[in-house]
Amino acid sequence: MIRSRSRRTARYGTALAAALVVLTGCSSGASGPRSTSAAEASVPAPSPDPLTWSTCGKNLECATIKVPQEYTEPDGRQIPLAVMRHRATDPGRRIGSLVFNPGGPGVSATGTLRDLPRTAGTPGAFSPAVLARFDIVAMDPRGVGRSQAVRCLTDEQRAEAAGTDFDPAVPGGKPLPRLLTDAAAFTNGCVKHRSKEFLASLSTDNVARDLDQVRSALGEDTITYYGLSYGTVVGPMYATLFPDRVRQMVLDAPVDTNQWFGNPLPFQHEVAVASERTLDAWFETCRAEGTAVCPFGAGDPQGAFDTLTDTLEAKPLKVAPVKGVTPGGELDGAMALEATRALAGDQNTWPLLTSALLAAQDGNGAPLYTLWNSVTVSPFPVPTAMFETHTAVRCADWQTPAGIAAHKAAAAKAVTEAKRIGTRAAYSALNCARWPAPNKDRVTKPLTAAGSPTALVVAGRLDPVTPHHWAETMTRTLDSAVLLTREGVGHGSYGINTCVDRAVDAALIHGAHPADGTVCETDTPATTRPLVPGNR
């Protein structure tokens, strides 16, 4: 069975889980893709028919749009994409359509939009002011969600992978020969489920063209755009291909798009280092608070954590099933590491992490095991359905080295510079190194969005997935952009910080931007008391 996250954990971040899936990207390597400029790639497609909407929830409408599988063959095979919109709550003051991508790649935009009323206080949640003025439009990208989601593993294979006792001391969790065997099984499964031609078409440039088909079908001359995490690759791609069709654009927790289309091994290394830094921030805060406030480790939380993971790996804790909460099983050291990595990446979940680690230290693995079940949507290989779609999209975008030597060197560097998280990042590009559906015409030129309005780039100072210097690079790469920084730990800033919320709302609604380099403060993180996201 495929795991699902509990509502309680989803409250602490659809974007915690969705956002932590984001970024270990890769692509086919053997064939060597042709470097395509934005101008060369912008192939005209026939105008789509207007969308036929049907009610599919409170204030929600659903439709399907058919787009070319390959825009180089606009009259060839057509594929269906799922579209949903949330109508403006103040239609008399409606500005237009706001299209968003919540990240991944692999996060369902329509599913995110459907959950919108339950995700207030999490990254990417739109304010009442934005909901009043815009129709919020979600399109599941090709290969994702209800747009022919990619599948590569059977339920039995997922269950087997979930039950494997990963050793966190081994780069990648398994010996390399086993990892190569797993990669072959994974990629073979993808091709069994979807054609090679479809898999090769899942690139971000095609997603951007699909968005323009949606814009046309909506009857809009321009769209407003908000992207989170991988959505900050889609937005600049769209604005580069179609600069005159962008009204305003906000990019939250941005990716370095120059690296995204390059060698994924350094890219993944920076993700691992960023995640390690947020874990270190939790350790440092716990130690600074003192044992009276944060008793885990008795003043040495790093040492206590390493001892705990080693102990759990040697002798996992048995966890009894709890109906509707956890299927039960065993908590080993790798599971503890994975859950800790995810929870340390959002300072609002630090109190949960502290209590779960203390319980595990006392022999009760249920809290940490339950959290592991809820947050194992990861940038590193874990057996989830989302990881399969995530991999397929990144493999269509990235140019991954085919030689194993490069992966060995990257793994060694990862475990040296990110002592704990590096073991989870190592060898995580092998699926794409073995990818059977090369994409030979991806767009690889810098995404400058020249000719589009000034973009607002928003970045967290300590982001576990997209390090702050990526936002600085994006601001320089875009032809016109301003950078807004949120202090603190977390992936995604809009929806959780009052200062950021005001700036993003002003940009989306009025096209007004803060001064470049503006900094928004945040609550001081704490390991034992829940933090309340800033109210609008």
Describe this structure in words.
It contains 22 helices and twelve strands. The protein has a single domain (1-536), classed as Alpha/Beta hydrolase fold, catalytic domain (Rossmann fold), CATH 3.40.50. The longest helix is centred in the middle third of the chain and has 26 residues, at 264-289. It is α/β, with parallel strands linked by helices. The protein is globular and about 60 Å long. The strands form two sheets. Strands 1-2-3-5-4-6-7-10-11-12 form a ten-stranded mixed beta sheet, sandwiched between helices. Strands 8-9 form a two-stranded antiparallel sheet. Helix 9 (204-218) packs across helix 10 (231-241) and helix 13 runs antiparallel to helix 14 (333-344). Helix 21 links the parallel strand 10 and strand 11. Mean pLDDT is 86; it is low at 1-42, 377-383 and 531-536. It comes from Streptomyces albogriseolus. This is Pimeloyl-ACP methyl ester carboxylesterase.
Short description:
With 536 residues, this protein is of the alpha/beta class. Helix content is 41%, strand content 14%.
> Can you give the mean pLDDT?
86
> Would you identify the CATH H-level superfamily?
Alpha/Beta hydrolase fold, catalytic domain
Assign the CATH topology.
Rossmann fold
Broad shape: globular
CATH architecture group name: 3-Layer(aba) Sandwich
Strand order of the largest sheet: 1-2-3-5-4-6-7-10-11-12
Instruction: Give the proportion of residues in helices.
Output: 40-55%
Poorly predicted parts: 1-42, 377-383, 531-536
What proportion strand? 5-15%
Q: Please indicate the count of domains.
A: 1
How can the largest sheet be summarized?
10 strands, mixed
Distance between the termini: 39 Å
Count of helical segments? 22
Taking all Cα atoms into account, the compactness measure Rg is 22 Å
Counting DSSP E segments of at least 2 residues, the number of strands comes to: 12
CATH class: Alpha Beta
Coarse structural class: alpha/beta
Protein name: Pimeloyl-ACP methyl ester carboxylesterase
Organism: Streptomyces albogriseolus
